[in-house]
Amino acid sequence: MRGFGPSGAAFAAPRRLTRSRGYTDAPRLALDPRGTLHLVYAESRQVMYRNADDAKARPISRPGAGFPAIGTDANGGVYVTYELFPRDEERPRGMGIAVSRDGGRSFSAPETIPGSADAQGAPNGSFQGLLMQKLAVNRHGELAVVNSSLKDGERSRVWLLRASPK
Predict the structure, then answer these.
(1) Considering its fold, how many domains does the chain have in total?
(2) What stretches in the chain show pLDDT beneath 50?
C-alpha cells in the first residue's frame, strides 16, 4: 500500500477483529503509552473490550449500553464510557463507565456516571452526538466527560463532568 505523510508510513493488510451474529457498531481505539492498542465497540446492546493480546472480546457493560468512548493514562489505566439505554426502543439517558487499572486485563463493575443524565428527564442529545468523543483522559487518570440532552422542540443543553483518580 502506498505510504502517507512525510514519514512514508504504510498501512498493513486488514485484520478482522470480530465476527458477530448480532449488531456490532461504533468501534473506538486508544493506544496507551506502552504501545498497547485497546478496542471497544457495541455488540447487541453491550460494550465489548479487547486489546491486541486478547484472543477475543469480552463484555464490560451491562446490557442496555452502546456508543462507547475510550481513553488511557500513563499508569495502565483504561477508561471506557458509554451511553445507557434504559429500554430497547428509547434514546439513551445518562452514561456508564468501566475502568481497568491493569492495562485492560480486568475491569471494574460497570457504574452509572453520577450527574450524566438530564435532571429533567430528557434523553441524551442528538443521534449524531452519539458518535462523538465524549471522554478525555490525561496521563494522571483525570477524566472529563461531556454529555448533552435534547427535548425536541423545547430545549437542549451541554454539561461537563470531571473526576480525579481515587
Answers:
(1) 1
(2) 1
Please state, in angstroms and as integers, the Cα–Cα distance from residue 70 to each residue in 1, 152, 154, following that order: 29, 29, 32
Residues 6+ apart with CB under 8 A from 56: 18, 50
Q: Which domain holds residue 89?
A: 24-163
- Listed in order, strand segments (DSSP E) in 105-154 are 111-112, 135-137, 143-151
> In one letter, which amino acid is 69?
A
Identify whether the C-beta of residue 96 lies closer than 8 Å to the C-beta of residue 86: no
CB atoms < 10 A from the CB of 83, how many? 27
The tens digit of pLDDT for each residue in 64-83 reads 999 999 999 999 999 999 99
Q: Which of 78, 73, 76, 13 is nearest to 40 (CA)?
A: 78
Which pLDDT value is given to residue 2? 56
pTM to 2 decimal places: 0.90
**133 vs 3: CA distance, rounded Å:** 28
Q: What CATH number does the domain containing 59 carry?
A: 2.120.10.10
- Does any domain span residue 13? no
Quick: pLDDT tens for 130-156.
778 899 999 999 999 999 998 888 888
Query: What's the gap between Cα 30 and its chain centre?
Result: 10
